[in-house]
Specification:
Largest sheet: 7 strands, parallel
Helix content: 40-55%
Enzyme class: oxidoreductase
Shape: globular
Number of domains: 2
GO biological process, one term: isopentenyl diphosphate biosynthetic process, methylerythritol 4-phosphate pathway involved in terpenoid biosynthetic process
GO molecular function, one term: 1-deoxy-D-xylulose-5-phosphate reductoisomerase activity
CATH architecture of the largest domain: Orthogonal Bundle
Cofactor: Mg(2+); Mn(2+)
Strand order of the largest sheet: 4-3-2-1-5-6-7
Order of helices and strands: EHEHEHHEHEHEHEHEHHHHEEEHHHHHH
Pfam family, one: DXP_reductoisom
Oligomer: single chain
Number of helices: 18
CATH superfamily of the largest domain: RNA polymerase sigma factor, region 2, helix turn helix motif
Distance between the termini: 49 Å
Bound molecules: NADPH dihydro-nicotinamide-adenine-dinucleotide phosphate, 1-deoxy-D-xylulose-5-phosphate, manganese (II) ion
Length: about 400
Amino acid sequence: MKNLGILGSTGSIGEQTLEVVRKNPGDYRVSALAVMGNISRLKEQIQEFQPKLVAVFDPDRGKLLKEEIIKLKARGPRTKTPEDNPNYPLFRVKVLVGLEGLVAIATSGEVDLLVNSVVGSAGLVPTVKAIDAGKNIALANKETLVVAGELVMQKAREKGIQITPIDSEHSAVFQCLQGEKKESLEKIILTASGGPFRTWKKEEIEKATYRQALKHPNWAMGRKISIDSATMMNKGLEVIEARWLFDVPQEKIETLVHPESIIHSMVEYVDSSVIAELGVPDMKVPIQYALSYPERIKGDYEKLSLSKIRNLSFEEPDTRRFPCLKLAYEALEAGGTMPAVLNGANEVLVEAYLQEKITFYDIPKYIKMAMEAHTPFEYTTLEEILEVDRWVRDYVSNTLL
Ligand SMILES: NC(=O)C1=CN([C@@H]2O[C@H](COP(=O)(O)OP(=O)(O)OC[C@H]3O[C@@H](n4cnc5c(N)ncnc54)[C@H](OP(=O)(O)O)[C@@H]3O)[C@@H](O)[C@H]2O)C=CC1
Ligand SMILES: CC(=O)[C@@H](O)[C@H](O)COP(=O)(O)O
Ligand SMILES: [Mn+2]
């Protein structure tokens, strides 16, 4: 039985992780949950999974949850013992708030495996603290590795921590690498769906609304990653994620548009063999693998039928229409703190696009300007990289926008 701490339990990956737990009650127990502010859904999750600890990042929402629990205790139906009360899971849970709350979960003795499915660079500090505390991590939060991949993986190696990817492409590569020698690897090929605008002309993409951008052809995901897929920044972030997760230089990481999202990624070896991982697009499959690794457990997910699909197609990414992908390679090339600048700028600009404050191509335009305003340096501490993250958010919000 593995005790899970799930950061971002109310999101797309968080909810699907809970679905995997529901399907495998004998293998996993949920001991801690954390959210940004969705306390109404968190309360339902507490009732169902009975965790010992929960954290709410937003202090006001956290305070509200505590107050609601106190009221429930005072007004709840009279029962012989507290345990008979239907709200008992809410009475016994410990509620924490803020970043300290997330860190408390990431380092808690109640947690064997931390599932980090928070969105954005907010996931970085809990990841680092979990590593320091010796916890293995199932990582969906790709921004952790984009912002500080070198530092995070260095710490994980020193501590002997297993970081198992949840991101579908990285789960695929991770599986294709099993049992192989690192020297045998020729290149990693990350597949990309191409997003909702794959076939659109540049002049059409220019006018795309955020509602159109949210309509991913193959995956139902959170809002931020859906916009990233539409700009193809998601693939850029994934190149950086792969660079650090697998310790492979960027020249050996290619991207290939594959609209069907059936091949989740591939690894080419020195003998010209290519190993790929395929499946019906369903994030519960890589989530379950990340939870069960190094074992594989049975999963009643839809089986792949290639004879029904018949054709798989491929094309080169077009960085003229999707410049964010090129910017991500440039950030890696620049090195040091530049990927953190790319990421922080992107997070602010995606939110501005969702709020209809900027247009689709303003996203790469302002990211480029933020990168030009920054002189990258080799960081060695978490504090240094967090300061760069703070600087770029402030610069984009208050100088560029
Ligand atoms: N969705 C997918 O299919 C995939 C996602 N990923 C990656 O997984 C991560 C999560 O994505 P996704 O599930 O789509 O995102 P969602 O937007 O659906 O969910 C985000 C979750 O994180 C919580 N959250 C956000 N900020 C904080 C914070 N500061 N502290 C605590 N909790 C926080 C939210 O809480 P609340 O509900 O309260 O706001 C919510 O539970 C991203 O890094 C994404 O790139 C990778 C591959 C596929
Ligand atoms: C499911 C998953 O892993 C996403 O990151 C997905 O890959 C997004 O699709 P794109 O290939 O369009 O970025
Ligand atoms: Mn992915």
